[in-house]
Amino acid sequence: MHDFCFTYPYGIVLLCGGLVGFLRRGSLASLYGGVGAGILLLVAGKISLSAYHKGSNSLLSQILQTVIALSVSWVMGERFLDTGKVMPAGMVAAISVIMSLFYAYKLASGGNHIPKKQNTS
């Protein structure tokens, strides 16, 4: 599975969660953190998808995705431990830990698998 296949939905979840947190509670931290992380993930996903279409990997996007997922895991994990609230802190922390593990695996395994083009001669 390619990183961008999960990065787009993950980025959208964080972006929407940040917007909802701001609109419902007036939380600027949700707005900046959620929307900022979501937008950065969407940009990283686009970079990764563009590199894939060119037949290469983007180490920059893979590192960016991993750092963002680890950061969100840390922040939301601490918030969950402080408040004990499963929604949203526990759920976002759990999703972010899973994504961190996925991104770490992709980094360790050399990135996206790029299929070799076959000659049709």
Automatic annotation (TrEMBL):
Presence of the UniProt keyword S-adenosyl-L-methionine in the record: no
Where in or outside the cell? Membrane
Gene3D superfamilies reported for this sequence: Transmembrane protein 14-like (1.10.10.1740)
| Membrane spanning residue stretches | 6-23, 30-53, 86-105
Provide one Gene Ontology cellular component.
chloroplast inner membrane
Keywords attached to this Swiss-Prot or TrEMBL record, sorted alphabetically, are: Membrane, Transmembrane, Transmembrane helix
Q: Under the GO molecular function aspect, what terms does this record hold?
A: fatty acid transmembrane transporter activity
Q: What is this protein called?
A: Uncharacterized protein
